[in-house]
Amino acid sequence: MKRLLALPLLIASPTSAETIGECQFDSETLTFAGTPLEQATCLMRKIEVKAVRKAQPLPPVLERLMQSDGAPTPAMKAAALAAFPQPYRDYAAQYADAPVSSTAEGHPLLYYVIHDTSTPFYEHQPFPKRLNQDWKVNDFTPYIDGSFADAPVAHIFLNRVGQIWAGHEFQEGWRATKLESRVVGPRARGRFVHIETVQPRRFLPGATTRAETHGPKPGFTREQYRMLAALYVYVSARAGRWLIPAQHNTVDSTIPQAHDDPQNFDLKAFGRELERFVKAG
Predict the structure, then answer these.
(1) How far apart are alpha carbons 38 and 75 in whole angstroms?
(2) Residues with Cβ within 8 Å of residue 77, at least 6 apart in sequence
């Protein structure tokens, strides 16, 4: 019985600060270690099959933004809004001047976390031949109707043709990583926003567990990278600062049963799309 009581106290107590994961998240300040540039460099490492993480350089545009004390200009924000597909464009326009989330202790929104859905799951079957246009792959219904989870697991869902569905508005503090839900707890809500990009999975040859799966190559489409960049500019503008980009797996690194997403994420492609919006300012 004592063992059962000790674990929640260790995890939830705000008075016992600890450093978590390879990017050294401080449970007291709710911040990863280092400058924004150093944090982004750690959090945007390449994630390969079975969650192998490898260093990679940040695109020049992200290097500049992480060393800037500024924020997206009104022109950049307008360009991002104009790029959104309908009906999300009208939805986003309603909240364009609204504040974004912060934690209960007043820590402002700081991290923009990229995920992949890892669904639909095809087990040992091949991916559809016309994967990017397949209705089952791009259908938002499983994320909406409760068949995927009791509530939408992220702020945004982004399918392979670039359509966007909002699970939670950016004003709402939410959790979508084990760092937030199992280690730090409700204190972390509001520090992160979460973007789920649709990518199906299947077992690796001979595998039988969801820890050994792989996604298609290329992992994402140009439309997804463009919308990821537009969303990053839009929510950063509302936050009044360039958010620090991160990925689900690097946020949760070293936490048991951490997810391995986003697989096959092309950081250079994201950087190219981001540069287009930055040049608009």
Answers:
(1) 28
(2) 96, 233, 234, 237
Task: Burial-class residue 107 by CB neighbours within 10 Å (0-12, 13-18, 19+).
Answer: middle
Could you give the CA distance from residue 100 to residue 111 in angstroms, rounded to a whole number?
Answer: 12
Sequence letter at residue 157: F
Question: What pLDDT, in 10s, does the model give residues 263-273?
Answer: 999 999 999 99
Distances (CA, A) of 266 to 18, 155, 171, 239, 246: 32, 22, 28, 25, 13
- Measuring CA to CA, which residue among 123, 148, 102, 109 is closest to residue 232? 109
Choose among 33, 60, 29: nearest CA to 279: 60
Pair of tokens at residue 83 = 């790029």
pTM for this entry: 0.93
Give one DSSP letter per residue of 29-45, joined into a string.
TTB-SS-HHHHHHHHT-
In this structure, what are the phi and psi dihedrals at residue 243, rounded to the nearest 5 degrees?
-70, 155
